[in-house]
Amino acid sequence: xxxxxxxxxxxxxxxxxxxxxxxxxxxxxxxxxxxxxxxxxxxxxxxxxxxxxxxxxxxxxxxxxxxxxxxxxxxxxxxxxxxxxxxxxxxxxxxxxxxxxxxxxxxxxxxxxxxxxxxxxxxxxxxxxxxxxxxxxxxxxxxxxxxxxxxxxxxxxxxxxxxxxxxxxxxxxxxxxxxxxxxxxxxxxxxxxxxxxxxxxxxxxxxxxxxxxxxxxxxx
Length: 220
Known about the structure:
Elements: H1 11-21, H2 27-43, H3 50-57, H4 61-67, H5 71-98, H6 106-123, H7 125-135, H8 139-154, H9 156-166, H10 175-195, H11 203-218
Helix pairs in contact: 1-5, 2-3, 2-5, 2-7, 3-4, 5-8, 6-10, 6-11, 10-11
């Protein structure tokens, strides 16, 4: 399986860039938001106190309360740049690197996409887990993610699949079924990590079996 793209990007790099580019927040707010993301990722929302965030950010606890009324408001402030900037930036990078390439066959296409996305999930699992937890009960964030996700797969992914279909290298199914098939298979790995956080899941094994599963199902 030959990968034509770089190693999967860390969400935190995009998140840090988003905070730096936001001229509407102060340096102390940037420190608090960065500390909040790190601690929520490491310990979870319930196990993180405002005092913990203040200590990690290098500010007084009163500074946290001065800028955010409570921990829930802080969580929403932490997630906003993650969803509005970091997530779209990561999706756009993947589109540029992986979905504007002409693949020689179905195996290389599936192998490249699966390997990159599973590595992305593994690298950014703690941040993704925060998003999943919030999406379960925050409709506004859920709707925003759906729009971003739909946009990220609707153009370049469709073009890559259509190219393979034009060369009779993939099944002639509606694009929504092919993409849905691939997305659900990739998300199955995320589900395993969430349900079995202590389980030592081999990434290579997951990639190999997911590629084989999709390749068999999508062969013309």
